[in-house]
């Protein structure tokens, strides 16, 4: 047969569009033409494939070869098509049966010896292959990652000769049996290890229960970073759907194949991070820190030290839960449903309002420092808390409820929210806010009057209402009452006064 078709997958953001590798042999002077919008790494595959086929003892066709990667308008990059190209040439030249390739998708980079090397983005390809009803053949190093997708037949090999023996029926590969890995549990670190800070622990509980964004302000050494690191331990374990989404992002972003379910993300980029590092981008767009924090926590320490233009790009994903990266050829969407936790000092020297250290900053310096954060960004942070210094005690005993006890309260509140509205309180839209957060006339007028005194925007008042809904859920109360509104307003006042 002079024509063979092998199915593979490209990588386009978080998606894995189908690619048909068509190999055609014709009479004429020996040549090889590769078409279908291949980038440099794909164009170089013809030399890798030639050496791999010859190293394995097969005959490289001495005919006029045309390789088409369809669809032609989809950019193809990387070495992920090497295996499919090699199998297409062997099938088109009659050295392998073409019928064995009909219900199979192939991914893998070839070494000159014919060995298979792992590639990135196998998990999105596995999800797409399951949807197409085909089996997936990958390098052995990618087998555990592909098997995270249930209901998919995965074949794994280390060499082109193993694949050829399987397709020829000489030595069939057994479907890869993945280890039965449980979903990851809570992260290490107990909130009871934090000395004192009862108000901050309460704010962490509320933030975890409603998936609210949180801003911690306080002097150096008050435990802001330690508190933020304990938040993932209060959140419920990832569901299988959430774990697949997190793993898919890490699959296209990581340099090594996944070997199991990833834990709930906790990302802590340095304040010198650029815009593309935070939101994603590049000539071949890849996810940034906000997408790597999907279904997890994004912790920004020293918040005013970040470039203001970098921080402003957070405003859209905080509302929509995704980031759109526009390029001349296409627009790529990466999921970014993260929980923002930020920490900052109240002034440049850090000691404004501290009981032990005297602030050396002038009012103008304090104002310039705080003006690095825009009002619209602060409006999108639900909880503003000033963390005060606690007495220093070495080897102090654990205080208050531990993470396991608080996690039970968080899980109960989130289950209530899912049953009532299908999402966390922080993600309620305006119609959902009206439906699930009703107020009596007296409470509504009281909240509006308090908002005017605190000079809160309408968006900030909506955030207050969402926090009050979470407080009511934690208390097991069906309707929001004045006590929940008052506590929710307290989480806005520190952010206004610093």
From TrEMBL:
It comes from the Bacteria. One of its GO terms (molecular function) is ATP binding. This is Magnesium chelatase family protein. The lineage of its organism: Bacteria, Pseudomonadati, Pseudomonadota, Gammaproteobacteria, Pseudomonadales. Belongs to the Mg-chelatase subunits D/I family. ComM subfamily. Residues 210-391 form the AAA+ ATPase domain. Keywords: ATP-binding, Nucleotide-binding. Pfam families: ChlI, Mg_chelatase, Mg_chelatase_C. Residues 265-286 are annotated as: Disordered. Gene3D superfamilies: 3.30.230.10, P-loop containing nucleotide triphosphate hydrolases (3.40.50.300). It comes from Pseudomonas linyingensis.
